[in-house]
Structure formats: structure tokens, C-alpha cells
Design goal:
alpha/beta
Amino acid sequence: MRTDDDNRPAGPLRQPLRLLVIASDTYPPRRVDVSVLFGEELAGRGHGIDWVLQSEAPCGRAYVTSWGGGTVYVGAMDHGDSLARRVRKHLLGILNDLKVFRLLRRGRYDAVIVKDKFVSGVAALLAARLARTRFVYWLSYPFPEHYLYLARSGDARYPLLYRVRGTAFKVMLYRWLLPAADHVLVQSEQMRRDVAAEGVPPDKMTAVPMGIKATELLPLPANLRRILIPEDERCLLYLGTLGKVRRLDFLVRVLALVRRRVPEAKLYLVGRGDDPSDEQALVEEAARHGVLAAMRFVGELPREEALRYVREADVCVSPIYATPVLRPGSPTKLVEYLALGKAVVANDHPEQRLVIEQSGAGYCVPWDEQAFADAVVELLEAPPELRRAMGERGRRYVAEHRTYDKLADLVEQTLVRVVTPPDQDASATPFAEPGGLVDDRRPRSPR
């Protein structure tokens, strides 16, 4: 039985799950939905999770290591920049993922979970069916649409390759993988609606948005002394990628409008682009509008230092142009802003509108430069007490809905339901205490 001290719903639990996860994330995983949600929260509850990942660092040979209480089968990595070496990198990843056949034959897993893999996903689906094991697909981003969008926009380095990849992956995803999956994890309710429009039943999907670690909800100091941002500076801050697909030239023009009414305002950009040309495009746009001197390109920082910038900012901004690629997203930056008690200006985007409306932690405005600038100016000129009140509402919302212990409850309950045979009540199935031993002698249920 769980106790009330677990900060999770009390009640009977099932025996710990044994999961095999094959993900597009590299090793060691850095995205919090992998490293925290699965690697810390679910693993910390006694679930056994093994991983098949490709090395992040250049690596000539595959190897096996331990992480998050499970075993990681790490594949070789080629970081060469030529087309041939990029193809080789993907082939090395696929070869490593094919270990799923051996692993499912050798070990007893309740489910294999594939995250954002397509060719390897089809192989894992076949392996799961041969092993009579549940197959769960985890879609965190619309990659097929992303590749097709880059090919159409001219931003792809190899347009033909991106077009072929996007088309092939779209067929694999919507015609093979998702229809055949026992369950699908998606990023947001909007993604759930988008995928349902492709013919996947909505009741076969669960939206798992981005969150933060509960330990990051620390008490806010009454008077935070600035260390990174000058004390007398009024500033707005953006945290995240500077990639062209984000259309952050919009934010440069917003800054120009803000400075007409708040001449001393500065814009801090904490992050980097996927390519050096991403940042250069913003520099050129800023120069055209005469605001380059008011912009601070901070770059990519260790997480703690990046969040320190967020804490010191007056207003945090989250502009997301709602392309078909970005519209279904669940932006982590928005949750991080709220967790740190910041007042926020965001544009009308499905997930952002939901969070702002439910939390009352800022303003959600149309994708319009003047409307966005007006909201920023209103917060910059507002009494600090108003911004603090918005920030406190945001922190409460995150504590109640978007910490990874809460999200782990959702994922755990979903996976238990998926792997429980139809004639057995998942809520009544005995569950070992977190950290307990897994009894591998239990009978294997029909798949």
C-alpha cells in the first residue's frame, strides 16, 4: 500500500512494471520527460526500466552501462557532418535498436515503449508482437510534419532527403505504428486531436504534457538580489531554442515597439539555435530595427544558471508561432517560468492558452507584435506586487498539475491499465512497494 507521505494517491498498486524503452534521445538523456519522468520518478517507484539509446558523444563501439536503476544498451555514434556520415549515424542507431529482438526474447518485459522512432519503431512493433508483449508508442513531436515543413520552407540542408524522410515517416507513423500500438502517449491535448484526425481513436491516447521536478518549486525569496542582470535594468527574457522555425524575429520587432514606451528595456535570449545562422538572422533583424544594443545573447547555459536568469527577469515571454509543427507542442519554458514565480506574456497557442487561463499567471494575446508589446509594457510598468501575485498563482498551478511526480501518476496508471489483461482489474492488482523485488516467476499473460 502507498502511504500519504508518498505525495501520490494512496491505494493498492500493481506489481512493478518491467519496461524496455527505445528512444530517439541520446545517452545520457537530457530531456526531462525522459531523464526525470522515467529515469527518476517511475524508476524510483520500483519499476524496472531498460533502455536502448545511441551515444551522445562520438563513439566507435556499442557498450552496455547502468542508468536509472536499469540497463542501457548504448549504440555507436558518428558525428560527421557530411551526408554520408549523417546517413551512417542513422544506420548505427537502427542497428543498435535491432537489439530489441534479442532483448525481448531473453527478458520478460510488460511493454516495449518506442519514443519518436520510425524505422526502428516498425522493427520494435514486430519484435513485441513476436514476444507477445504490449507495444506503446510515445510521440513527443510531429517529426514527419517537421521534415516536410523544412523541405517546403527551404530551411532544410538536404531538401530532397527531408521530403523523402518526412513522407516515409508519415506513412510509418499514421498507417502502421499508431494503429497497431496498444496505446499512444502524446505531448498535449492538441496533439491528441491532431493524431485523432489521422484516424487513431482518441481513447487510445493519453496526453502527457511537459513539467518540472517538484524540487524546483523552492520558496521564492522576498527580495531577490540580482547577480546576472543589472539591478536598475528593466528586461524581458526568452528561454529556449533560437531556431528559425520559432520565428523569433517577431520578438525582435516586439522589443522595438516596447522601447518606444520603455526606452531602457532590454531583451535577454537564453539559448542557442540549431545552426549559427539562426542567431545571425536575429542579429541582422535587430540591426534593421535599431535594437541590437538592447539585446543580450546569453547563449546556452547549464540549467541552474539559465534558471537564475529567469528568476532575475522582470517579465518572461513565450512566443510560439502556431505552425502545424509547433501548434501541438507543450512548451517547457512556460512551466519553468511559472514555477519560478514569473509573470508571463504568451501568444495564443493551444497549450499556452490552457495554462494561462487556468493559472492566471500572465497574459495570453494574439500573434500580433503590437498586442504582444502592449502586454509586455503593461507588466513592466505594473507594480511589482501585481507581478508577484501572478507569479504565485503560476507556482500554485504548477504544484498542482505540472510536477513530474503528478505526471508520473498519470503515466503509471496508464501503463498499468495497458498491460493488465482485460479480465483483470488493474486497480485491484497487488503491487510491490516502491523499491521492492520483482518476481519474475509470475505467469506470463497472453498478449
